TrEMBL record:
Keyword set includes Endoplasmic reticulum: no
GO BP: any one term: trehalose biosynthetic process
Organism expressing this protein natively: Intrasporangium calvum (strain ATCC 23552 / DSM 43043 / JCM 3097 / NBRC 12989 / NCIMB 10167 / NRRL B-3866 / 7 KIP)
Phylogenetic classification of the source organism: Bacteria, Bacillati, Actinomycetota, Actinomycetes, Micrococcales
Transferase is among the record's keywords: yes
CC annotations in GO: cytosol
Enzyme kind, highest EC tier: transferase
Entry GO MF terms: alpha,alpha-trehalose-phosphate synthase (UDP-forming) activity; trehalose-phosphatase activity
Gene3D superfamilies: Glycogen Phosphorylase B
Family statement: Belongs to the glycosyltransferase 20 family.
Keywords, ordered alphabetically: Glycosyltransferase, Transferase
Protein name per UniProt: Trehalose 6-phosphate synthase
EC number(s) from the headed UniProt entry: 2.4.1.15
Length: 478
């Protein structure tokens, strides 16, 4: 590190940079902000702290040089094509992701994937160490970067290190399957503060430290046994959405007009049901379709009066479990439409694309019933986005109790997606509950999200990072 180089008081590290690369017709490269909640949250905190963001650009190959964009210093980290395969698709998404989501599909264990995970985490830590000012706050995101906290600490013992897990942290019985479980825990314990979506996730982490590393823990604090006297705090700080930004988008006349247009183009059904998910086996799309199909077969509902729009964003298409899920969902949709659709009135409208934010807000406003039925989900922002967009107090949210969101939004029409009969009942209740009762529920759900938005989440996280115990003050009695 040279003394003339600019460094930053806040450094965020995440698998991806908060921008997407676009190349125009002349071959000029432009970067456009990707509109995720994390970026919005960081914007609000970075306005008062000069900040850097360390992340992968999304293309295999050498990292482009650092650049500044929308008030942030962006520091790309390069991944080779093999590292994209082994670190990202392999260890992150085919080893950790299934273990951290209750092994809905089996996890794959490969030692060369682990080697790539270690190597890439070290590279991220080196980039962070170069960007951080003396005593800076470093905020590392998510399951792809669990070793980075300890690597950063080795390189820069002067900085404060936080990590936030966007996905669940598994019970120790599942976590223990990982051949690299101790190294992962030791990587995380390099941080001063660990944030989780639910208190149960934080407790699972503390229990794993006790049982697998033999460390002492009291409440939310784990005490290290390396002679440093350091303690690490683990607690829940659930993420949220940019309530005010999204609500005002949903109030724009063009968005409201588009919502009406969507309903008209679907033949103005009495009940429009909606699912919006990354095409992922954790999201319970198969269970949702099964329940819907049975409701149609039993003639509780049927097109054209009731229809379902399922938006399934393409995701991780080079991982086998995702390819076979896509095939299965597409076959199921084809079968339901073949058997139960009518001319001009399919039972399921299936859309396998990404949409701009305005279109998503219009879809949320058009939907009478929003189906959020994951088998396991760290939070699920779609549930919070839906209620945020319903400034008209219309609509009903069916929400799985296995999402982090349910712990805040339990007034929703709750379901256990494994219980198909129960899921059908929740869907029917969401349709048939009187309008005034649904409005009362929606008002309560909206109040919760309005009071706990993503800006509050980021402020709370950084305050907890600042207040984390680190090394407790020496005992004055000596
Ligand atoms: P995800 O698993 O990606 O996130 P989720 O929280 O639902 O799940 O976020 C998905 C985001 O993508 C939402 O903002 C949604 O609006 C958007 N989206 C989905 N389909 C889209 C489409 N077709 N077009 C455009 N946008 C679309 C992980 C964890 C979650 C956790 C988040 C944040 O798995 O549990 O809530 O991180 O911490």
């Amino acid at each position: 590190m040279t003394s003339t180089r600019k460094t930053f008081d806040l450094v965020v590290a995440a698998n991806r940079l908060p921008v997407d690369k676009q190349v125009d017709e002349q071959g000029n490269v432009e970067w456009h902000r990707s509109p995720g909640g994390l970026v919005t949250a960081m914007e609000s905190v970075m306005r008062s702290n000069p900040g850097a963001w360390v992340g992968w650009s999304g293309d295999a190959g050498e990292a482009p040089p650092p650049f500044d964009e929308e008030g942030m210093h962006l520091r790309p980290v390069g991944l080779s094509a093999e590292e994209v395969r082994d670190f990202y698709e392999g260890f992150s998404n085919d080893t950790l992701w299934p273990i951290y989501h209750d092994v809905i599909v089996p996890a794959s264990f490969h030692r060369e994937w682990w080697a790539a995970y270690v190597r890439v985490n070290r590279r991220f830590a080196e980039a962070v160490a170069e960007e951080a000012a003396p005593g800076a706050r470093v905020w590392i995101q998510d399951y792809q970067l669990q070793l980075a906290p300890a690597f950063v600490r080795q390189l820069r013992p002067d900085v404060r290190i936080g990590w936030f897990n966007h996905i669940p942290f598994p019970p120790v019985e599942l976590f223990a399957q990982l051949p690299w479980r101790s190294s992962l825990l030791e990587g995380l314990l390099g941080a001063d503060f660990l944030g989780f979506q639910r208190q149960a996730d934080a407790r699972n982490f503390v229990r794993a430290c006790r049982q697998l590393l033999g460390l002492r823990a009291k409440g939310e604090r784990v005490a290290l046994d390396d002679g440093s006297g350091r303690q690490v705090r683990a607690t829940a700080i659930p993420i949220s959405v940019d309530y005010r930004g999204l609500e005002s988008l949903a109030q724009q006349p063009e968005v409201m007009a588009r919502a009406k247009e969507i309903r008209e183009s679907l033949g103005n059904p009495d009940v429009l049901m909606l699912g919006v998910d990354r095409l992922d086996y954790t999201k319970g799309i198969r269970h949702r379709l099964k329940a819907y199909e049975e409701l149609l077969l039993e003639r509780h509902i049927g097109p054209p009066d009731v229809t379902l729009v399922q938006v399934a964003t393409p995701s991780r298409e080079r991982v086998e479990a995702y390819r076979s899920l896509r095939e299965e969902i597409e076959q199921t949709v084809g079968r339901i439409n073949g058997e139960l659709g009518k001319i001009g009135a399919p039972a399921v409208h299936y859309l396998h694309h990404s949409y701009p934010r305005e279109e998503m807000a219009a879809l949320f406003q058009a939907a009478d019933v929003m189906l959020v039925t994951p088998l396991r989900d760290g939070m699920n922002l779609v549930a919070k986005e839906y209620v945020t967009c319903r400034h008209d107090l219309g609509g009903a949210l069916v929400l799985s109790e296995f999402t982090g969101a349910w712990h805040e939004l339990h007034q929703a029409f709750t379901c256990n997606p494994h219980d198909i009969e129960g899921l059908k009942q929740a869907m029917l209740r969401a349709i048939n509950t009187p309008k005034r009762d649904k409005e009362r529920i929606m008002r309560a759900l909206r109040r919760r999200v309005a009071d706990h938005d993503v800006q509050r989440w980021a402020r709370r996280y950084l305050a907890a990072l600042d207040a984390a115990p680190g090394v407790p003050a020496p005992d004055p009695r000596g």
